[in-house]
Each structure stands twice: as structure tokens, then as C-alpha cells.
Design goal:
With 341 residues, the chain is an alpha/beta fold. It is built from twelve helices and ten strands. The chain has two domains: 2-116 and 300-317, Nucleotidyltransferase, domain 5 (2-Layer Sandwich), CATH 3.30.420; 127-295, ATPase, nucleotide binding domain (Nucleotidyltransferase, domain 5), CATH 3.30.420. A five-stranded mixed β-sheet has the order 3-2-1-4-5, sandwiched between helices. A five-stranded mixed β-sheet has the order 8-7-6-9-10, with helices on both faces.
Length: 341
């Protein structure tokens, strides 16, 4: 079964072809250069870029997979959560192709895509069996999820304010680093000589909620104390301390949740899962606590269409279909344990 997956929820235009759960091609056109001067994603510009890239990206994905549109058996596209104007482009393209080719189509939840990315077949890495406890940390979302099956995912807690990736990006901006801030802070944290310590919020054992606005404010106050102009080594010390504060709380909640639910496998997901410090700390804590850690390759952590094609493949295989009237959803939370019983 060949599935074409399309992702356009934020600032990456992506298409991928998955055959029976294995990736044949995975193409991402990044818009980072377009948004960089603004220090963040400008929704209107994102939609326009998606319009420009979407067909060439799909064409390249088909070519690299060595298949034609005639050989595609189903189409999956992200239908939320995300920027509505951006989602519209990928979703409408997917629906049009599906109608024109009389192919089954399904809309995919972007968060579900991230949470199942560790199970994509095709590389030599071990894949987690169900059930597993996952940390999803990206630019738009941060939460702890119990994944019992591809269609049984429960949110145990999420952030009350900023997402972890958003905090990385905002702190980078505060100290005058570029955009997106996550990878830059990650790099600086590795080589910093000193470390400035910052507080961690909501460390309670019984809560899987996060809050990153406090650490962001603490960084702003520290920068103000330095006269608003930290030097290079002070910036590196901030990067290292900020990253530690975020990474430690993320791993703490993930491992606390795993232990509380007696789950042995833990999984990292989302753009922040690309962070070297997070991967290292998670590996160390997993070893100490006898947990098995699964960290997908970086290209399956940051936004991509393989995860959408893969999640779509699982849904289509079960006979799930979306109608041609499917609309994009800006918000589409995965049910929390309290609301799903
Ligand atoms: O999953 P993603 O690609 O898009 C969303 O769904 O939001 O995540 C993007 C976020 C950005 O905030 C970016 O700064 C962060 O992931 N990110 C990182 C790293 N690479 C990307 N954060 C920390 N360290 C990294 N190496
Ligand atoms: Zn994402």
C-alpha cells in the first residue's frame, strides 16, 4: 500500500511516500530563511510559501520514491492542529488529488503523527512496542502522552503556557541569537564554559503539566541585570543553564509518568527531541531507572511528512476515511485522561 503524506501545519512544506509503513521518500522544503528576519513564523508568509512549494515538493517525493501518482493507493494530510492558512494549502491539495484520482483520503492529527514517529519502519533503529510513555516537545506543543495503540493515545498533562520549543526560540531572541533558537542554544550549551542556573517550575511528582514562562522571565531578568548586553561567554552560560532547566523538567515528568503507570518504554517526539542535551540526559536517566529509551532520528523529530503518511497509512488500513468537506483545525488536542475517562 503506497501512501502519499502531506504536511503544511507550520513552516515546513513536506511530502513523503510510505509503502506498508516504510519510508520510500521524505521531502521537506524549509521556510526558515523567509521567517528569519521576523524572528518567528509569519502566518501569512507561511501560507504563501506553502502555495509555492507544495506541488514541486509532492512531485519530488513521488520521483524520489520511484512511483507515479497512478501507483498511490491513498492520501493523508495534516488537518490540524496548526496555522489554519498553512494547513489549508496541504489539506486542499490532498483533497483535490484524492477526488481527482478517486483515492481514499484521511486527515491526520499532527500530534499523533509526532507521537507515532518512533514507530516508523525503515531504518535500523529499534522501534518501541506499545504501550509507551512519550514526551512530545515542539514549537507549538509540550506534553506527556500514554500511547497504548496507534489510536489509543492519552494526554496526561501539557504545558500551561509556552511550549518548550517556543521557550527555546524566545530565549534565543532575548539574548540576541538567531532563529530558530533551539538548535543554536543546543550548540552553545555544548561548548559553554560556565553555567547560569535558572528555576524549574511545577516540579511536583503528581503533575505532568509544564510551565516555561517563569524560566523565560528569569532569563529576561538576568539579561537586564547584565545591562541588557550579555557578552559571548555570558550568553553561552545562559544557553547552558536554560537548556538544563528545560531538559531536566521534561525528562523528570516523562520518567515520573512512566514509573507511575508502570510503563518500561519511553519515547521522545517533536522538534525539541532533536536537542542533544535532551537526548543525552534522557539516555542517562533511562539507564539509571531501567527504562528503555527510543529517540527517533532527528529528521523524524522535527516536522516531516513521513510521520503523517505513516499515521495516515495506519488509519486508511483500518478503513478510516475523511470527507472532501474536512476543514483544518487550529486546535485539535489529543484527549486528556480526565476527559477520556
Ligand atoms: O516539531 P517542530 O519541527 O514543529 C512544531 O510542530 O512546532 O518543532 C519546532 C521547534 C522549534 O521551536 C525549534 O526551536 C525546536 O523545535 N528545535 C529545537 C532543536 N531543534 C528544533 N529545540 C532545541 N534543540 C534543538 N536541537
Ligand atoms: Zn510538529
Amino acid at each position: 500500500m503506497n501512501i502519499l503524506g502531506i504536511e503544511s501545519s507550520c513552516d515546513e512544506t513536506a511530502a513523503a511516500v510510505v509503502r506498508d509503513g516504510r519510508v520510500l521518500s521524505d521531502v521537506v522544503a524549509s521556510q526558515v530563511e523567509v521567517h528569519r528576519p521576523y524572528g518567528g513564523v509569519v502566518p501569512e508568509l507561511a501560507s504563501r510559501q506553502h502555495m509555492q512549494y507544495i506541488l514541486p515538493v509532492i512531485r519530488t517525493a513521488l520521483d524520489r520514491a520511484g512511483v507515479t501518482l497512478d501507483e498511490i493507493d491513498g492520501i493523508a494530510a495534516t488537518s490540524g492542529p496548526g496555522l489554519v492558512g498553512a494547513l489549508l494549502v496541504g489539506l486542499q491539495t490532498a483533497k483535490t488529488l484524492a477526488v481527482a484520482r478517486n483515492l481514499p483520503f484521511v486527515g491526520v492529527n499532527h500530534l499523533r503523527g509526532h507521537l507515532l514517529a518512533a514507530r516508523i519502519e525503515g531504518d535500523d533503529l529499534p522501534r518501541p512496542a506499545f504501550p509507551y510513555m512519550a514526551l512530545l516537545a515542539s514549537g507549538g506543543h509540550t506534553g506527556i502522552y500514554l500511547v497504548e495503540a496507534d489510536d489509543r493515545i492519552t494526554c496526561l498533562g501539557s504545558t500551561r503556557d509556552d511550549a518548550a520549543g517556543e521557550a527555546f526560540d524566545k530565549v534565543a531572541k532575548l539574548v540576541g541569537l538567531g532563529y530558530p533558537g533551539g538548535p543554536i542554544i543546543d550548540r552553545l550549551a555544548r561548548t559553554a564554559g560556565e553555567e547560569q542556573s535558572f528555576p524549574q517550575a511545577l516540579r511536583r511528582r503528581d503533575s505532568y503539566e509544564f510551565s516555561f514562562s517563569g524560566v523565560k522571565t528569569a532569563v529576561a531578568q538576568h539579561v537586564a541585570r547584565l545591562g541588557g548586553r550579555p557578552d559571548e561567554s555570558q550568553i553561552s552560560a545562559i544557553a547552558r543553564g536554560f537548556q538544563r532547566a528545560v531538559v531536566e523538567i521534561l525528562v523528570r515528568k516523562l520518567t515520573l509518568a512512566a514509573r507511575a503507570r508502570q510503563i518500561e518504554r519511553i519515547v521522545l517526539a517533536g522538534g525539541v527531541a532533536a536537542n542533544a542535551g535532551l537526548r543525552q540526559h534522557a539516555a542517562a536517566v533511562a539507564k539509571e531507572r531501567n527504562l528503555e529509551l527510543f529517540a527517533p532520528p532527528i529528521e523524524h523529530c522535527t516536522d516531516n511528512a513521513s510521520m503523517i503518511a505513516y499515521a495516515g497509512y495506519l488509519s486508511l488500513q483500518k478503513g478510516e476515511r475523511s470527507g472532501a468537506d474536512l476543514s483544518p483545525r487550529a486546535n485539535w488536542p489529543i484527549l486528556s485522561s480526565s476527559s477520556s475517562g
